[in-house]
Amino acid sequence: CLFTGNYNRCASQREAMAAFKTIFVTVGTTKFDDLVRTVNSEEFIQMVISKGYKKMVIQAGRSSYSPTIDDARFQSEIYQYKESLKQDMEEASLIISHGGMCV
């Protein structure tokens, strides 16, 4: 709904997201091991579970770090690249990404 302008669909998506809060983490085509490692940490996982999140999707790009989330209370999906991130973005309650490159 973010991209289509279909606001009726947006309302039903918001209801579904409220019941199943999902985090989408994306690094795009870059390598950002620190971000991927941080969202994979036990401390971060426990914090987001305490906030009601049930699932995290990590688009890890060129990361050399291989995240693994092993918590029965929390679903995870991890991939390097997809043709489109649109669906993941639309289904997310929260999107975490990097803000760009520091020089």
Q: Tell me the overall shape.
A: globular
Beta-strand residue percentage: 15-25%
Helix content: 25-40%
How many helix segments? 4
Tally of strands = 4
Distance separating the two termini = 35 Å
Q: Could you give a short account of the major beta sheet?
A: 4 strands, parallel
Q: How would you describe the overall organization of this protein?
A:
There is one protein chain. A 4-stranded parallel beta sheet has the order 3-2-1-4. 34% of the residues lie in helices and 21% in strands. It is α/β, with parallel strands linked by helices and 103 residues long. The chain contains 4 helices and 4 strands. It is globular.
Reconstruct the topology from this structure.
Blueprint lengths: L6 H13 L1 E6 L6 H7 L2 H9 L2 E7 L15 E5 L6 H6 L2 E4 L6
Parallel strand pairs: 1-2, 1-4, 2-3
Name a few traits of the molecule.
alpha/beta
Summarize the structure.
The protein contains four helices and four strands, in the order H-E-H-H-E-E-H-E.
